[in-house]
Design brief:
Layout: E1 2-3, H1 17-30, E2 36-38, H2 42-49, H3 53-66, E3 69-72, E4 75-79, H4 80-92, H5 96-100, H6 102-122, H7 125-143, H8 148-161, H9 166-178, H10 180-186, H11 192-208, H12 212-241
Helix pairs in contact: 1-3, 1-4, 6-8, 6-9, 6-11, 6-12, 7-8, 7-11, 8-9, 10-12, 11-12
Length: about 240
């Protein structure tokens, strides 16, 4: 049975918005008296949470990945049983912050090094030119104090395209959406952008030179660096909130 109700939601605070939105949605869905709860429209949710559409969509994408939110005919429904189970997971296994940063990083460590290695084996000259384009764009963006992260995500998806495996492209694209918040955090430390570009250049050169194991290791090193930057950014945020 599907339930609809008037959402009463506390506007999310300015920091860590997607995970706070996700946590509040899980609590509302879990409190439903039926098996599923029809969610308000994106516009209504953005107004009630007082957040932007990108923040809301990131939270919803995260919950869809957990099975807490499902989509049918362009409408979203909260699954009460999944939400209640997730509340237990939040309290006993991991915080929402861990689920939105540590867990995706773990998946990146599993998926992306192998993707880079396969790209090194299969890349075409057109793939090399596309990857070079994103490297150059990142460098120019950094020099002009722009948002390097926008080109970072495009670079990683282009690596997947260079494998010529359509499933991998879909997987890495979805992973980029899910890990958007953690990527944002990883670029907050001062040294992050310059170091990330250097990492990307090493990955690119290994793929260009068709050296699969070097590409694998370069990507693994990069994901480890991203994890370090996320932890540093999280610590800085905690210190600011003390």
């Amino acid at each position: 049975m599907t339930e609809t109700q008037d959402f009463r939601i506390t506007p999310a605070q300015s920091q860590a918005l997607p995970r706070l939105v996700a946590e509040q949605l899980v609590k509302v869905i879990a409190s439903s008296g039926s098996s599923e709860l029809k969610l308000p429209t994106e516009r209504e949710l953005t107004e009630q949470f007082e957040v932007g559409r990108n923040v809301l969509r990131e939270a919803l994408t995260f919950l869809e990945g957990l099975g807490v939110v499902t989509v049918r005919k362009r409408e979203r429904f909260g699954q009460t049983g999944r939400a209640r189970a997730q509340l237990v997971a939040f309290s006993t296994r991991a915080s929402v912050d861990e689920l939105m940063t540590s867990d995706p990083i773990e998946v990146r460590r599993i998926v992306e090094p192998s993707t880079a290695a396969l790209a090194a084996q299969r890349r075409t000259q057109e793939d090399v030119l596309e990857l070079q384009h994103w490297i150059d764009s990142m460098q120019r963006c950094h020099e002009n104090h722009g948002r390097v992260i926008d080109f970072d995500e495009a670079f990683h998806v282009s690596i997947a395209r260079a494998t010529h495996n359509h499933t991998l492209v879909e997987l890495v694209t979805t992973l980029s959406d899910i890990t958007h918040e953690s990527r944002e955090m990883s670029f907050e430390p001062v040294i992050a952008a310059e170091s990330a570009i250097a990492d990307h250049r090493r990955i690119f050169e290994a793929i260009r030179d068709q050296k699969p194991e070097e590409a694998r290791q370069a990507m693994l090193d990069h994901v480890s660096f991203v994890e370090e930057m996320i932890h540093e950014a999280s610590k800085t945020l905690e210190d600011q909130n003390v």
